[in-house]
Amino acid sequence: MDIVLTIILDGLIYASWLFIVALGLTLVFGVLRILNFAHGGLYALGAYSAAVAVPFFASWGLPPAFSLIAMFIAALAVAIVIAPLIERGLLRLFYGRDEVLILLVTYAVFLILEDATKMVFGVDPYYVFEPRNLLGNVEVGSLFYVGYDLALIGLAIVCGLGVWLGLHRTRIGKVTVAVINEPEVSAAMGVNIARIYLLAFGLGVFLAALGGAFTSPLISVQPGISVSVIVVSFAVVIIGGLGSIPGAAIGALIVGLARSFAVYEAPEAEIFIIYLVMVIVLIFRPEGLFTPVQARKI
């Protein structure tokens, strides 16, 4: 029984931060119709920024709990600085162009971010242990888990509900949904499409950086973390369906539980099982599990 509970909890913890990252990826695709390959680099930038921000603010003599706020500030700073540079300075020049061309552009941005992080932060690993010590250990049945790890599940739920409610219960969200469904009609009615695109892309960047920032206490922040994240994030959104928030949640759960099961029962298949699940979904439902049915245009 303990092994089943362990697999479930480990799967949920892995799925939580992965969902936050995939949520930003699927949001950008849903609004801008762009497969943002640079998303992994933005995740890494968030992790590096948090790894620098936490000890920086700690040197001011602030309470240890402020490290959580420092990670949030680091992610927000990445979004405020980087999102306008990429979206306004580059991506807007390619709107309406071939999807493969835009994918190659975002891949080029990914490579630039990868080298830029090495130049700015160096190649030595960073370790951020302070936030993970804040919540102590939590007893779950006969098992003990780090409270911070379990808190990531709550953070993922807050992010998912926040984005969903923002899209469906606020005026700017309803305008964004209108832009998603009918961009030409929205523009004709006076909607500032460029501003909506910038806001959506900025939120996507923030979610990628937030996932990286709050994952930094769990990992060694070093060059290369962006590669594995973007590949697995693509698997999540492909399984769940591009542009679907519930799909990103279910996809993250499937990937997290599948990986956790493999870690304990077949460690050599830890990565393979994720792509096996993705292939199975693509065979039987190529559009993903939660992609809404599209009306055929004549």
Automatic annotation (TrEMBL):
Topology versus the membrane, per the UniProt entry? Multi-pass membrane protein
| Membrane-spanning residues | 12-35, 42-62, 68-88, 100-123, 143-167, 196-219, 225-257, 269-286
Single Gene Ontology MF annotation: transmembrane transporter activity
Please give an example of a GO cellular component term from this record: plasma membrane
The primary site where this protein sits is: membrane
One example of a Gene Ontology biological process annotation: amino acid transport
Q: What domain of life does the UniProt record list for this protein's source?
A: Bacteria
Q: What are the record keywords, sorted? A: Amino-acid transport, Cell membrane, Membrane, Transmembrane, Transmembrane helix, Transport
| Pfam family name, one | BPD_transp_2
Question: Entry's InterPro entries?
Answer: ABC_transp_permease, BCAA_transport_permease
Question: What is the annotated localization of this protein?
Answer: Cell membrane
The family line of this record is: Belongs to the binding-protein-dependent transport system permease family. LivHM subfamily.
* Protein name in the entry: Possible permease component, ABC-type branched-chain amino acid transporter
